[in-house]
């Protein structure tokens, strides 16, 4: 289900961490960035973690060998994504389940619009890809 | 293993409902031409996506229904261009499949959704130029975006 509300307690100055499945990155203009596929969950609920409440190292420990996208909350909101806490859906072993959120539009969008806003997010220069820790 | 034999191995190992038998025959025909290396890779990647799907809390539901993958195979069967770049095939959280062909500043993305719908996006310089629903009944229109992709290099 899409987020039912935007949690304003999660400030625009924060970042969320999105774990990237293999092939969810591409090199565009010499820069590696996430693909829009990484933010196009069919149910409009893309799992992320609030950085600061959970560290990059914590997420890397939960998902070794996978890259992570670091995405500004302000960029998500600019494109119409809301952020909602979903502690009950945190992965097993997550040390701070409250840090688990889903991001997505508050209501269902056309697929063309969803693709467009997801692409706008991942193209933003402030979005970074973090390599897996070894 | 030649591309022809390998492609047929991929097709044979994949469950085939009646609706996709015609598409499978078309894919086999293309494979017999032995000159569409993109197709073997696409089918192989697609089978990988289907067989490795799972639910991963913290990332999403990466399971792909056979019917969704069949839509991608059906699209492949409508493509008559043999010298396409090898696409990148991946799962989309929630049960979708994404297939992206890139060439220079252009890319064409096929998105197959778990509800059976499919869209194709023409993109240039990382911007969507045109999103459109895939018309599986119209052979020429289905492959049109890929003709646009390769046209720039001809």
Could you describe the 3D structure shown?
The complex is a heterodimer of chains A (134) and B (154). With 134 residues, chain A is of the alpha+beta class. Chain A has three helices and eight strands, in the order ββββαβαββαβ. Chain A has helices spanning 56-62, 73-78, 111-123, and strands at 15-20, 25-28, 31-34, 46-50, 67-72, 81-85, 100-105, 128-130. In chain A, the strands form two sheets. In chain A, strands 6-7-4-1-5-8 form a six-stranded antiparallel β-sheet. Chain A has a two-stranded antiparallel ribbon with strand order 2-3. The relative contact order of chain A is 0.28. Chain B has one domain. Chain B has helices spanning 3-13, 21-32, 37-51, 66-78, 139-151, and strands at 55-56, 60-61, 88-92, 96-103, 106-112, 118-124, 127-133. A five-stranded antiparallel β-sheet of chain B has the order 3-4-5-6-7. Chain B has a two-stranded antiparallel ribbon with strand order 1-2. In chain B, helix 3 (37-51) packs antiparallel against helix 4. Residues 1-9 and 12-19 of chain B have low confidence and may be disordered. Classes of the chains: A alpha+beta (134), B alpha+beta (154). The A-B interface holds A 19, 21-24, 26, 28-29, 35, 37, 40-43, 45-47, 49, 62-63, 89-92, 94, 100, 111-112, 115-116, 119, 123 and B 56-60, 62, 88-96, 98, 100, 102, 111, 113-114, 117, 119, 121, 126, 128, 131.
């Amino acid at each position: 289900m899409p987020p039912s509300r935007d949690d304003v307690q999660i400030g625009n100055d924060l970042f969320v961490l999105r774990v990237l499945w293999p092939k969810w990155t591409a090199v565009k203009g010499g820069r590696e960035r996430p693909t829009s596929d990484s933010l196009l969950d069919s149910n409009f609920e893309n799992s992320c973690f609030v950085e600061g409440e959970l560290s990059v190292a914590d997420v890397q420990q939960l998902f070794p060998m996978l890259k992570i996208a670091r995405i500004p909350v302000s960029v998500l909101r600019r494109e119409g994504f809301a952020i909602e806490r979903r502690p009950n859906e945190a992965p097993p072993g997550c040390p701070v389940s409250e840090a688990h959120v889903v991001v997505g539009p508050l209501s269902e969008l056309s697929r063309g619009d969803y693709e467009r806003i997801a692409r706008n997010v991942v193209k933003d220069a402030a979005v970074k890809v973090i390599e897996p820790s070894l | 293993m030649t591309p022809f034999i390998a492609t047929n191995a991929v097709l044979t190992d994949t469950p085939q409902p009646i609706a996709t038998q015609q598409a499978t025959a078309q894919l086999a025909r293309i494979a017999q031409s032995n000159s569409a290396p993109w197709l073997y890779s696409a089918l192989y990647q697609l089978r990988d996506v289907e067989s490795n799907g799972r639910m991963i809390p913290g990332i999403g539901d990466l399971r792909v229904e056979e019917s969704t993958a069949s839509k991608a195979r059906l699209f492949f069967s409508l493509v008559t261009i043999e010298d396409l770049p090898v696409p990148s095939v991946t799962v989309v959280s929630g049960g979708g499949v994404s297939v992206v062909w890139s060439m220079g500043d252009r890319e064409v993305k096929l998105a197959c959704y778990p509800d059976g719908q499919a869209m194709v996006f023409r993109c240039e310089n990382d911007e969507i130029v045109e999103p459109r629903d895939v018309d599986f009944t119209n052979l020429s229109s289905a492959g049109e975006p890929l003709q646009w992709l390769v046209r720039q290099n001809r």
